[in-house]
């Protein structure tokens, strides 16, 4: 698996990456798999390659809301680098694929020792904070259909194709609504020709339709994603 398939690993200095290589392993991630529960110890850090991870906040009653998505542009478990060894969100596999992973202790040591690694992580952390702020605004001010369109666009932006594999129940968890509400919103989008959905297999057919129906948050998050890509490509 090539180093540049995950942009964090591609951006850290070559010398630091070589030190990580013996400890990096490749794992397959399944939809709905929980990598960390909220407040759970972080023993491993994940660097997605073709998979997408959702960072979720949950209430005591079990209600959830997604605050950020992580694809091959990022990493999961970043709070371990900020002075705490427990997860501040629940991390759930949103779309199946592979990931590299490494023991948290090894990467924390590298982060503390290498200015180049710290620079990369701080650039990425800014992007996560922007996502979290925009997601909070979106959840409060926009309709479910608008949020679903934004979420689908963000998802396919992180995948090599316009196909996603997930149940409507899982989509409801990510969007913080009941499955029945997702079913109705997805049916309207399918009737418009924007997507096709069958038995957990969703294909985006008309991206332009989703962009027209999405809220303004998608455009704002797209700008931030492009900024992150530029930042990670700079020495």
What characterizes the major β-sheet? Answer: 4 strands, antiparallel
CATH class (first level) name of the largest domain:
Mainly Beta
Number of domains: 2
Give the strand line-up of the largest sheet.
2-6-4-5
Distance between the termini: 23 Å
Using the 3D structure, state the CATH architecture of the largest domain: Sandwich
CATH fold call of the largest domain = Jelly Rolls
What is the approximate shape?
globular
Going by helix content, strand content and strand pairing, the class is alpha+beta
* Content of β-strand: 15-25%
**Share in helix:** 40-55%
Kindly report the name of the CATH homologous superfamily of the largest domain.
Jelly Rolls
Low-confidence stretches: none
Count of helix runs: 9
Question: What this model shows, in words?
Answer:
46% of the residues lie in helices and 22% in strands. The protein has 235 residues and is an alpha+beta fold. It folds into two domains: 3-139 and 223-233, Jelly Rolls (Sandwich); 141-221, Orthogonal Bundle (Arc Repressor Mutant, subunit A). Strands 2-6-4-5 form a four-stranded antiparallel sheet. Helix 4 (115-141) packs antiparallel against helix 9 and helix 6 crosses helix 7 (179-191). It is globular and about 55 Å long. The relative contact order is 0.15.
Concise summary:
It is built from nine helices and ten strands. By secondary structure, it is α+β, with helices and mostly antiparallel strands.
